[in-house]
Amino acid sequence: DVKVTQSSRYLVKRTGEKVFLECVQDMDHENMFWYRQDPGLGLRLIYFSYDVKMKEKGDIPEGYSVSREKKERFSLILESASTNQTSMYLCASNSRGDRASEAFFGQGTRLTVV
Amino acid sequence: AQRVTQPEKLLSVFKGAPVELKCNYSYSGSPELFWYVQYSRQRLQLLLRHISRESIKGFTADLNKGETSFHLKKPFAQEEDSAMYYCALDGGATNKLIFGTGTLLAVQP
């Protein structure tokens, strides 16, 4: 019963390429998140969307953009990939309004930029 | 500013020993706090939330507003508890989730 699905498990891209990471959830959640997970740094929020076409910058938005055209889909875009964007990327979603709402995570996309 | 601090990167204990994973937070309002866990090769998942006041897999966590802490405890560690544990804060009207840096718990046999 997979609830949050990320389009790729592993990706290898070249420096300077435009990269799209896709995430889809089937729980009708208002909120969707993109994090990157690095050893020793934990989960750092890149961008957050609380509704269709609405977004808010997280702690490390530089070099990234996002798109939320439909409620169930949240895309992370690396405009021009760089080696320091090599990381594990996690997508998550939860309900808005219920402040104890459980967040559900995707399986992660391990991106390597060469 | 909203912030979650987990001071220990690694906590190594022997099976049967007590476990305490530390979490401190910074938030001006009334926070909602969570512990998430990631077992090897599995997705990150919710372990427990402070509002539920429940024990999950023998783990408990109490919110201490005076000390701004939400430490995770278990009286007797098991090998299957070995995982990465993240403390998280839900603050604000939009339910933005902020995570700490995580603590790797290693339970030795």
Explain how this protein is built.
- The complex is a heterodimer of chains A (114) and B (109).
- Chain A is mainly β.
- Chain A has a single domain, classed as Immunoglobulins (Immunoglobulin-like).
- Helices cover 0% and strands 56% of the residues of chain A.
- Chain A has no helices and 11 strands.
- Chain A is globular.
- Chain B is mainly β.
- Chain B has a single domain, classed as Immunoglobulin-like, CATH 2.60.40.
- Chain B is built from no helices and 11 strands.
- In chain B, strand 9 and strand 10 form a beta hairpin.
- Chain B is globular and about 45 Å long.
- Chain B starts with a strand and ends with a strand.
- The model of chain B has no long low-confidence stretch (mean pLDDT 92).
- At the A-B interface, strand 4, strand 5 and strand 9 of A face strand 5, strand 6, strand 9 and strand 10 of B.
The number of helical runs of chain B is 0
Tell me the series of helices and strands of chain A, N- to C-terminal: EEEEEEEEEEE
What number of domains of chain A? 1
Can you tell me the residue ranges of chain A where pLDDT is under 50 for at least 5 consecutive residues?
none
CATH superfamily of chain A: Immunoglobulins
- The CATH architecture classification of chain B is Sandwich
CATH architecture of chain A: Sandwich
What value does the Rg of chain A take, in angstroms? 13 Å
How much of the sequence lies in strands of chain B comes to over 45%
Q: How helix-rich are the residues of chain B, as a percent range?
A: under 10%
Largest interface: A-B, 29 and 24 residues
Based on CA inertia axes, which overall geometry of chain A fits?
globular
| Overall tally of domains of chain B | 1
Sequence of secondary-structure elements of chain B: EEEEEEEEEEE
The assigned structural class of chain A equals: mainly beta
